[in-house]
Write a structure and sequence with these properties.
By secondary structure, the chain is α+β, with helices and mostly antiparallel strands. Strands 1, 14, 15, 16, 17, 18, 19, 20, 23, 24, 25 and 26 form a twelve-stranded mixed sheet that branches. It has a six-stranded mixed sheet with strand order 4-13-12-7-10-9.
Length: 531
Amino acid sequence: MAHKCMTYLKLTLVAGLLFIVIFQFWIPSSSSGVDIRPRQGKLEEKLFSEKTEDLISGYPDIAYHTKEDVASRLAQNACLCLPDEETFHIPFSNLLFPRVWAHNLQQAFLEYYPDPEIVKRHRAQEYDNFQRRSYSPADLLNIAEANNPLQYPTQGVEVQPLKTIFIPGLGLKQRESSNYEVQLKATLGTFDVAATVDMVSITGEGEQQMTLSSRLLSSLNRQLQVVTYTNTVFHPKTADLIQFATEGHQSFFTIKIGHKTVPKLYKSGYGEEYNITSLVTIATKTFLRYDKLKDLIDSIRQFYPKVTIVIADDNEHPQPVKGPHIEQYIMPFGKGWFAGRNLAVSQVTTKYVLWVDDDFIFTANTKLEKMVEILEKTTLDLVGGAVREVTGYTATYRHTISVEEGGPDGDCLHFRDGFHHVIEGYPTCVVADAVINFFMAQTDKVRQVGFDPRLSRAAHLEFFVDALGSLHIGSCSDVIINHASKIILPWSKTETQKSYEKFRYSSVGVDKNLHNEIYYFKNRFKCMTSQ
């Protein structure tokens, strides 16, 4: 009797846990919707930093009280990757209470090298070079001092290389004096005036330093309205740090130097409805799965008969894939997954590219119009859909990604399941940092990020890590594509299927430390966590 009661109790517990798991998957989200040449000027940076430091480090004699709940959220520059400890174990505990997993990239990568310090020095050197290449005075903190008599633009002033502009907003708001004087100093350009004003003395016209003075404040201010700046050192993207000073006061502001962004517009047709044929190209890569590829193409043609399909093919003995609006590009044998993506996307001529695996199948729920609408009406660069397995389970695979500063050894990379917020007006769509392997994106934006061709067999999140800060990403659960069944009985496998599995899942010839190298060296992470 006791044994039966214990069995009944266990069954009840398991059933209860299953109900909770299913309830968690089915419960709707309560999130509210949201509209959505290297130079490093040491002297200028020193002057700028000293002024800023004086402003933010004043009043040392006044006591203060720290608010721990706020201070704890500030960057400490000493991140750690620590896994969650398992406090108790019950059936399905990992589903109900997912724990954080941690991976020490520094240790995992460096253990393959007899002298890890050489690798660390090399990485540090590369990082220093990267910082120098990306340095711009416009990145320095600038504080407009309160009650400063100098009036100047704090941001928004831009000039094309070797061109001239007015400097807007210059002025002096000083108390009565027998003489008023200001100085302007630059490093990448010269000053001048577009007109002269009576009673104003100017020295240094056409030079990097110019002084303007007058006994009349109104005349000086009028003269300041027509001061010009001419860039004299060509650089396609940088900034000049301008020093603007008067007696007892000095200020700094930046003038951005760079070419205007040249637009890339797509002729996509006219009309109220979206012309998917002229807006979207479908891209995929195939290897040893021509049967799956045929099923994919047939399903696409059922709903989108004229949309161009671009195929990257790295088979050893490629077979021609024929049909209207199909482009097949042959690659070196076994070149790989991300190399194929790069090739396919490089041949897209439409505004948007839809990426699909070669074993996907379009259905009536694969609404490309919905994806186009989201991309056209929001600031998203990429939107993912959902993939339905033969079991009926539909996956969206949404993640958030964050980078935590970690000091000289590198930063910490954190993956978490979930998303940031729902998109207002689209309750089935959310904003995330990584989505499933079925997405539509702006072609140019994807090319800018690119796919690391070293990742030949297994890769996904690496693309979204590279895209962090470049792509605005979303996911819609109501745009669904089917996944062909992967269930094949051992005795029914064809030779091609056996070859595919052997090549795809074999560890022969695979650099097991490649992923660690990419995260540790290329992206400069010392560890990562995921959930």
